[in-house]
Design goal:
The complex is a heterodimer of chains A (about 240) and B (about 400).
Chain A: H1 5-24, E1 40-45, H2 54-63, E2 72-82, E3 85-91, E4 108-116, H3 124-128, E5 134-136, E6 142-144, H4 154-158, E7 165-166, E8 173-174, H5 180-183, H6 190-194, E9 200-204, H7 212-218, E10 221-222, E11 234-237
Parallel strand pairs in A: 1-11
Antiparallel strand pairs in A: 1-9, 2-3, 2-4, 5-6, 7-8, 10-11
Chain B: E1 4-5, H1 18-41, H2 52-65, H3 67-73, H4 82-85, H5 96-126, H6 129-138, H7 147-180, H8 193-219, H9 226-257, H10 262-270, H11 274-298, H12 303-329, H13 331-334, E2 341-342, H14 355-375, H15 381-393
Antiparallel strand pairs in B: 1-2
Helix pairs in contact in B: 1-2, 1-3, 1-7, 1-8, 1-12, 1-14, 2-5, 2-8, 2-14, 5-6, 5-7, 5-15, 7-8, 8-9, 8-12, 9-11, 9-12, 11-12
Classes of the chains: A alpha+beta (about 240), B mainly alpha (about 400).
């Protein structure tokens, strides 16, 4: 092939762009996604959640979650005061997938709490895995390598939030992947996309333009079980002290 | 599955079954039996000498079976070797393979081989056929049983036992750490867990060797050495006192501290765990054998009465320690990490992790021990004397 100096100079920038994509690795070629530029978490606004179950249904469908197991679920808290004594009732029928039966009992404090993997920065589940089959990605998502997991279930025991389960057919640990196949393509998670009230917001803590920063600055935001110091990145706005 | 109150939806299914109860029970017997053996070797407690070899063989028989319940429990047993190839350094479980191999190969097998080397060489010269071949292989090509060589064996064996004691502590302390280091589970998460596991291991191992020693002698129609049995029972009593005290320290600490999990756990102990924890573990499996053993220490009882008490107390001890493992492993999964509800453990029978495989895995070490005793008889010098005489004649 004859290539003039002019041709070479014209092709050089194109080749440089292509090379960058090759270096970036397979899932990143489409969007020029760089793991080092992101640090994922999620914001859950309890005051906005209506317990409709859309997120649970979307997750089950998107991720082909087996029946009876949940990568995300919704809990309903009902706090009553009878003769000065508070009583707490919590339920989550079918993980809240089909919503909740309505209750119009007066004098009851009622709210919904969506739950899922907290994608902890210091995750106790990845710490205990004997072969490192579950790990934290450079962009802060806790994943399980299904081809490597032994199915010993130590990680399930170590998760304080009950987010993991053993897939009944694959016999490996499974959990929320924060729709990693979607977020690395520039999309949001299935649960966030299907939430009708915007109670769930995917948050990129490394992106200075992400609205999460403004929200965290102006609201009282809490994580679940903070005393366990897991570095949870599922941030709750309006979290009641009764929630565990 | 019947649940009370609220469980996180993924918590309703129990993850660790009766097989995981069996695993610390078996390794506990290993560690306890080895430590009993080391009493004679390192601490020169001559009275327990008749149990020395039997204790080592018991430890080996149970150690060979210890990984099987884990293997059976894994979702992908074919991948278990990955723990050796790519261990995750921050995982307590990843160390299992290494601790296990170290203990099996570097401590137990080596010590047994050194201790039996003279007998193996003698047997390789006095037996015929397949047996001869087996013993010749077991000599590993070394047939030197001169006084000098045996003295070296003895010295090396002593060093291995000295290394073996912390190794036995490591083996079972590590099993306790697997549970004690899980901060998500308040029933397990206590720094006392490895220590409690260790002492309960010694209790169960000593009780098992005591029972096996008396049983084997009965089968051989030989009298048990009462001085040996009394001494072993005395050590069982001492270890039991330490073990029970540690468990009480843990209990009192939990009650006094009453952290957020206390009400939930307290309710569980008074309901779902009442039979297995309060009745079987504490009353029948700990307090009663301690009282019985104390009786043999303070009252003047006849030999036959003491032996009967030892057998009864030994059986109760093993049941109690098994119940302790059960209450740790199964109890730790019966309550929700939300502290708002409880689930139930339903054990299958002829399923992969059911009662039947658990029974098979409990009986299997006894079968292995039977084979080991046949191949490497643990009986005392005077009983093997004719064999030595035969060699001398050759």
């Amino acid at each position: 092939m004859n290539m003039t100096r002019r041709h070479f100079l014209v092709l050089l920038p194109a080749a440089a762009l292509a090379w960058e994509n090759i270096l970036a690795g397979a899932p990143e070629t489409a969007t020029n996604y760089h793991t080092s530029e992101h640090w994922w978490g999620m914001l859950v606004d309890i005051e906005k959640c209506i317990g409709c179950g859309s997120c649970v249904r979307a997750c089950q469908k998107e991720n082909n979650v087996p029946d009876g197991y949940y990568r995300t679920w919704i809990e309903r808290y009902r706090i009553k005061e009878v003769n000065g004594v508070e009583t707490l009732e919590v339920d989550s029928p079918d993980g809240g997938m089909n919503g909740f039966p309505s209750s119009n009992e007066p004098g009851v404090k009622e709210f919904f709490v969506p739950k899922m993997c907290n994608h902890c920065a210091d995750s106790p589940c990845t710490q205990v895995c004997p072969v490192g089959a579950t790990f934290v990605t450079p962009d802060g998502v806790v994943l399980v390598d299904e081809k490597y997991c032994l199915g010993c279930r130590y990680c399930i025991q170590a998760c304080p939030y009950g987010c993991r389960f053993l897939h009944p057919q694959k016999n490996v640990a499974q959990k929320c992947t924060l729709c990693y196949h979607r977020i690395t393509q520039g999309l949001t998670t299935a649960c966030c996309e299907n939430c009708p009230t915007g109670a769930r917001q995917l948050a990129d803590l490394k992106n200075p333009k992400d609205p999460i920063h403004e929200f965290l600055r102006t609201h009282s935001v809490q994580v679940l079980k903070p005393h366990l110091a897991t570095g949870a990145k599922l941030f709750y706005n309006g979290l009641d002290g009764a929630v565990r | 599955m019947p649940t009370d109150g609220f469980m996180y939806p993924n918590e309703i299914e129990l993850q660790w079954s009766v097989l995981i109860v069996l695993y610390p029970f078996l390794t506990g017997l290993v560690a306890g039996a080895f430590i009993l053996a080391s009493l004679e070797r390192v601490f020169r407690v001559e009275a327990v000498k008749p149990t020395y070899r039997l204790a080592l063989l018991t430890a080996l028989a149970f150690l060979l079976v210890a990984p099987l319940p884990l293997q059976l429990h894994l979702g992908h047993p074919e991948r278990s070797f990955e723990m050796y190839l790519t261990p995750h350094r921050s995982s307590a479980m990843a160390m299992f393979g290494f601790v296990y191999l170290w203990y099996l190969m570097a401590v137990l097998v080596l010590e047994i081989w050194l201790d039996y080397r003279r007998d193996i060489v003698v047997l390789s010269q006095t037996t015929t056929g397949i047996k001869r071949l087996l013993y010749r292989v077991l000599t590993l090509g070394s047939s030197n049983i001169s006084e000098n060589a045996l003295a070296i064996d003895n010295r090396v064996g002593w060093v291995i036992t000295v290394i073996g004691i912390p190794s036995a502590f490591l083996l079972h302390g590590y099993v306790g750490f697997i549970f004690g280091s899980i901060k998500a589970n308040p029933w397990w998460s206590t720094p006392l867990m490895p220590v409690v596991f260790l002492f309960s291991a010694m209790v169960s191992g000593i009780a098992a060797v005591l029972l096996l020693y008396m049983l084997l002698n009965r089968l051989r129609k030989q009298p048990s050495d009462i001085r040996c049995v009394d001494t072993v029972a005395k050590y069982l009593f001492y270890m039991f006192i330490i073990d029970f005290s540690l468990e009480m320290v843990d209990l009192i600490h939990r009650i006094y501290e009453s952290d957020e999990s206390f009400r939930s756990l307290d309710f569980m102990v008074h309901t779902r765990l009442f039979l297995s924890q309060v009745v079987i573990q504490i009353l029948l499996g700990t307090v009663l054998p301690i009282v019985l053993l104390a009786l043999t220490q303070v009252a003047r009882l006849s030999e036959i009465a003491r032996k009967r008490i030892y057998v009864f107390a030994g059986c109760l001890t093993l049941i109690g320690i098994f119940a302790m493992r059960w209450n740790v492993v199964i109890g730790g999964q019966l309550f929700s990490k939300s502290f708002l509800g409880y689930t139930t453990y339903k054990m299958g029978f002829a399923t992969k992790e059911g009662l039947l495989p658990a029974i098979v895995l409990t009986v299997l070490p006894l079968f292995i021990l039977w084979v080991l005793v046949k191949v490497l008889p643990p009986w005392s010098e005077k009983e093997t004397a004719p064999v030595s005489a035969a060699v001398a004649a050759n």
